[in-house]
Amino acid sequence: LTCAAEHLFNLKFAAKELNRNSKKCDKEEKAEKAKIKKAIQKGNMEVARIHAENAIRQKNQAINFLRMSARVDAVAARVQTAVTMGKVTKSMAGVVKSMDATLKSMNLEKISALMDKFEHQFETLDVQTQQMEDTMSNTTTLTTPQNQVDMLLQEMADEAGLDLNMELPQGQTDSVGTSVASAEQ
């Protein structure tokens, strides 16, 4: 597995090196094209032809380096898959061994009792949480002045161009008023 990882590193390094060489050839091709223009401007067609041949050669080399880089990258991907699969297989073997040991030592009665106790505690927690939320909501309702709430609702309704009494259902306004009145009593 370690040897494959080393090969993977070397393959990735080679692919990057080939990419670098391809880019280098692209730059040299552009430089040769600039030299072609200068030679033509000076009227020196023989030198321009030599630079044109060099530019074409650099372009072909860039393409070849890129092609080789892609091939090496494909091989690296296959090696990466093999390395990963090796690691996964090794991990799965360990999991299977530990599952075997767990299954042999499992006591279903103890697990069932533990799950029952967990469910009971969870239900108790739900009840306590509900009581705390109810208490908090009652406290919040009592500490907020109702007339300020009504004024804010009316202001927002006016901005929206709505009639507040028509938008709120009749039962909702009564229940709010009743809960506040009963809380104050």
From TrEMBL:
Coiled coil: none annotated. One of its GO terms (biological process) is vacuolar transport. It comes from the Eukaryota. PANTHER family: CHARGED MULTIVESICULAR BODY PROTEIN. Belongs to the SNF7 family. This is CHM1B protein. It comes from Rostratula benghalensis (greater painted-snipe). The lineage of its organism: Eukaryota, Metazoa, Chordata, Craniata, Vertebrata.
